[in-house]
C-alpha cells in the first residue's frame, strides 16, 4: 500500500506538525527542520480528525473511523488518554469530528450513529437532564425553489432562515416537554403555551399521511384568520370611531353657518 497523508495539523505554537497517514500511524515532525520526531501508534483505521489544544502546545487530539479517540503529548510522543467509542449492541461508532472548547477544559465529538460525546472535567449532572434523542422537527422537511430559484420550506412556503425557531423532538418526531423547548435559541423566554407544538397530518411525497409537528407561527396565523384577537378588535373599533369623527368635522366645516359667516378656525 502506498502511504498517503489523510490529515495534517500544526500544534498551538506551530513548532510541530502532525500528519495522519493511511497506514494508521501519526507522525510528529519538526516544522522548522522537517525532521521526523515521533511515530504515534494506536489507531487501527484511517484518521480524519486532528485537533490541537487551544493553548497547550503539547496536546493534540486524534480520532478516526476505528472509534478510537486519543489525547497525545506530541513533545514526548506518548499517549495521555484513550477512549474507545463502543455502542452497546451496535459495535463501535466511527468518530467523524472533534472540537475543543475555547478554555480547553472540554471537547466534544460526533460519531457515525448521530451521537454527541462530551468529555471534560467535573460531573455530568447538567447533561444528564437532557433527553437521549434531540432533533429539530424541521430537520428532514422537504425544500422547494421559488421562481427566483431561492430555497423555501415546502410546508410553510417560507425561507428557512426566516422560519420561527424549531421544536425539539425525539427520533420518532414526538415533541419533548416545554422545559426542553426552552433550550432552543429564540424560545428561552416564551410563554408556556407557545412552547407546546401543534401536531397535524401531512401527506408525504409517497402519498402516505403521517403525523408531524407543525410550527406554532403557522398555526397562530391560521387561527387569527378564523378568530381575531380581542386586541385587534379594539384597535379596529377605535380607528372606526376616529374616522367617523373626522368625517363629521369635515362635513360641518364644508357646510358653514346658515348666515353666511365663515367657520372660525379651530386651534
UniProtKB/TrEMBL annotation:
Record InterPro entries: Bromo_WD_repeat, WD40/YVTN_repeat-like_dom_sf, WD40_repeat_CS, WD40_repeat_dom_sf, WD40_rpt
Q: So which domain of life are we looking at?
A: Eukaryota
**Keywords (A to Z) from UniProt:** Repeat, WD repeat
Which residues form the WD repeats?
1-39, 40-82
Ranges for region Disordered: 240-267
* Gene Ontology terms: cellular component: nucleus
Polar residues: bias regions = 247-257
One example of a Gene Ontology biological process annotation: regulation of cell shape
Alphabetized PANTHER family for the sequence: BROMODOMAIN AND WD REPEAT-CONTAINING PROTEIN 1, WD REPEAT DOMAIN 9
Protein name per its UniProtKB record: BRWD1 protein
Q: What organism, scientifically named, is this protein from?
A: Halcyon senegalensis
Amino acid at each position: 500500500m502506498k502511504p498517503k497523508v489523510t490529515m495534517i495539523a500544526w500544534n498551538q505554537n506551530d513548532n510541530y506538525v502532525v500528519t495522519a497517514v493511511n497506514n494508521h500511524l501519526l507522525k510528529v515532525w519538526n516544522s522548522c527542520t522537517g525532521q521526523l520526531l515521533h511515530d504515534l501508534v494506536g489507531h487501527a483505521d484511517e484518521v480524519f480528525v486532528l485537533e490541537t489544544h487551544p493553548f497547550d502546545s503539547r496536546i493534540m487530539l486524534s480520532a478516526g473511523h476505528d472509534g478510537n479517540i486519543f489525547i497525545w503529548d506530541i513533545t514526548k510522543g506518548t499517549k495521555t488518554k484513550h477512549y474507545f467509542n463502543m455502542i452497546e449492541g451496535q459495535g463501535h461508532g466511527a468518530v467523524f469530528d472533534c472540537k475543543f472548547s475555547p478554555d480547553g477544559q472540554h471537547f466534544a465529538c460526533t460519531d457515525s450513529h448521530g451521537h454527541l460525546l462530551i468529555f471534560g472535567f467535573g460531573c455530568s449532572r447538567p447533561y444528564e437532564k437532557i433527553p437521549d434523542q434531540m432533533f429539530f422537527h424541521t430537520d428532514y422537511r422537504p425544500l422547494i425553489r421559488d421562481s427566483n430559484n431561492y430555497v423555501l420550506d415546502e410546508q410553510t412556503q417560507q425561507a428557512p432562515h426566516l422560519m420561527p425557531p424549531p421544536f425539539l423532538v425525539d427520533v420518532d418526531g414526538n415533541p419533548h416537554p416545554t422545559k426542553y423547548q426552552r433550550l432552543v435559541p429564540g424560545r428561552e423566554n416564551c410563554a408556556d403555551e407557545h412552547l407546546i407544538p401543534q401536531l397535524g397530518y401531512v401527506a408525504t411525497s409517497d402519498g402516505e399521511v403521517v403525523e408531524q409537528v407543525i410550527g406554532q407561527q403557522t398555526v397562530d396565523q391560521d387561527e387569527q384568520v378564523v378568530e381575531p384577537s380581542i386586541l385587534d378588535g379594539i384597535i379596529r373599533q377605535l380607528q372606526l370611531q376616529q374616522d367617523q369623527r373626522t368625517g363629521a368635522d369635515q362635513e360641518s366645516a364644508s357646510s358653514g353657518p346658515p348666515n353666511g359667516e365663515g367657520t372660525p378656525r379651530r386651534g
